[in-house]
Write a structure and sequence with these properties.
The chain is of the alpha/beta class. It folds into two domains: 213 residues, D-Maltodextrin-Binding Protein, domain 2 (3-Layer(aba) Sandwich), CATH 3.40.190.10; 200 residues, D-Maltodextrin-Binding Protein, domain 2 (3-Layer(aba) Sandwich), CATH 3.40.190.10. It contains 19 helices and 13 strands. The strands form four sheets. Strands 2-1-3-13-6 form a five-stranded mixed beta sheet. A four-stranded mixed beta sheet has the order 8-11-7-12, sandwiched between helices. The radius of gyration is 22 Å and the shape is globular. It comes from Streptomyces gougerotii. This is Sugar ABC transporter substrate-binding protein. InterPro entries: Bact_solute-bd_prot1, SBP, TAT_signal. Keywords: Signal, Transport. Belongs to the bacterial solute-binding protein 1 family.
């Protein structure tokens, strides 16, 4: 995603007469949208741009329901992550009004979009709509939806790290690891690298590993930024770097520093590792005969993130959220779509289909968790209660920050001294934060 995009003048938008009436109807009944003062008519389709994800696929199948309630056609385009990023860069730099609702990552591009003025401030809408009930969203995802005090997106998909383990192997290794120390001991015991058997597998790619490593960092008592300054040179961060490097470097597969989700997940799915920590959203891969071996499907277990020196502090993030393009001529209609798609009823339906959402009331409803294995559902609840709402630093240039932070991870996995690498990364990240903050304040 480009970080040098400039902001062009915003256009003025009219309010739609039907909006206030629709706002009082609730998430399950929408009023028809009449012609807008800005020139948009009820025949103008509402245009949604989204990631090709199980959530957006499920919503797309249900669009007829919204169209009937709203009296407006909807066009929904599903793209890969790279395609979505490129499309946003082109359209928003050109102040394009040909997209209304945008599926965004609150922790990846929202800060940049906010800096450029590309997202509508939703604060008054979410807090002023009693039926939508903003307080019903989990604390961590709700907090992550705001940038500089303004709510810019509504979370619709959440994610936490879960400990996947082989039940048959864990029994021989002292049971399910409840602490990071126990995970290390069990992984070292399970590893037989000469025979292609590994104790632990996880992401090791320099930038891509940072989001999963964040839970190890927090559970060691560290953070990316402390009091506005770099925290990755702290004693706690050094311990987290050293731990993860040893865990993956000593007990994981060769070439781990090249592993992202796509490379690490199959190692566990094919029965070559005893333990694996990654997003709970990928759990279905280990129940799928096309991906996982029969042995893994029958023996896979799910557990909360293990406790470190500072306790168990996993992330609980909004992996995907909905925002409104600041250049849209259909702001009110866009909000009505968000109220419907992120409302209690749709959130429950989607979570009952196995897509984890962000509403606390839905999570507390046993019916919404029947699709998930019972052990996984409990692990997700525990991690959500303990979780922090971010898995990367909240900066403009997220990709650059992750690249800096990931360097000591690679050193540790390769068995190189972590201390010097962490000191160098800390100095570079400290300088980066100064420049990044100056860029934020340059508007």
């Amino acid at each position: 995603m480009s970080t040098s995009s400039h902001l062009l003048s915003r256009r003025s938008f009219g309010r739609f007469a039907a909006a206030s009436a629709a706002a009082a109807v609730g998430t399950t009944a929408l009023g028809a949208c009449g012609p807008g003062k800005g020139g948009a008519s009820s025949g103008t389709p509402l245009r949604i741009m989204a990631i090709n994800h199980v959530w957006s696929q499920a919503v797309k199948r249900r669009l007829g329901e919204f169209e009937e309630l709203a009296g407006r056609r909807v066009s929904m385009t599903l793209l890969t992550a790279d395609q979505l990023a490129s499309s946003y860069n082109v359209k928003l730099n050109a102040s394009g009004s040909d997209v209304d609702v945008m599926m965004v990552r609150a922790l990846q591009e929202q800060t940049l979009f906010a800096h450029n003025g590309w997202l509508v401030d939703l604060t008054d809408r979410v807090k002023g709509d009693a039926r939508f009930d903003w307080s019903d969203f989990q604390d961590a995802p709700r907090a992550a939806s705001a940038t500089r005090g303004k709510v810019l997106s509504v979370p619709v998909v959440t994610e936490r790290p879960v400990l996947y383990y082989r039940k048959d192997l864990a029994e021989e290794l002292g049971g399910v690891p409840g602490t990071l120390d126990a995970l290390m001991a069990a992984s070292l015991e399970a590893a037989d690298r000469r025979r292609g058997r590994y104790g632990f597998v996880g992401r090791g790619q320099r930038s891509g590993a940072v989001s999963q490593w964040s839970s190890f960092l927090y559970s060691h008592g560290g953070d990316f930024v402390v009091d506005g300054a770099s925290g990755i040179g702290s004693r706690e961060a050094l311990a987290a770097y050293t731990y993860y490097g040893r865990l993956l470097g000593r007990t994981g597969p060769p070439g781990a520093t090249n592993m992202s989700l796509e490379q690490a997940m199959p190692v566990f799915a094919q029965g070559r590792a005893a333990f694996y920590i990654d997003a709970d959203a990928v759990y279905s891969s280990f129940l799928d005969p096309k991906v996982a071996t029969e042995q893994v499907r029958e023996s896979v277990g799910f557990a909360p993130f293990p406790a470190g020196p500072a306790g168990a502090r996993p992330h609980n993030i909004p992996s995907w959220s909905l925002g409104i393009n600041a250049f849209s001529r259909l702001r009110d209609e866009s909000w009505e779509f968000i109220r419907w798609a992120a409302g209690v009823e749709q959130s429950r339906k989607l979570q009952e289909a196995g897509i984890p959402g962000a509403r606390a009331s839905v999570w507390s409803d046993p019916r919404s968790l029947k699709k998930f294995p019972a052990e996984l559902a409990e692990s997700m609840r525990v991690n959500a209660r303990r979780g922090l709402g971010y898995d990367r630093p909240r900066v403009l240039q997220v990709g650059r920050a992750r690249d800096i932070i990931g360097r000591p991870l690679v050193a540790g996995i390769l068995g190189e001294p972590v201390g010097p690498a962490a000191r160098d990364a800390d100095a570079e990240f400290a300088d980066f934060l100064v420049r990044d903050n100056r860029h934020k304040e340059s508007r």
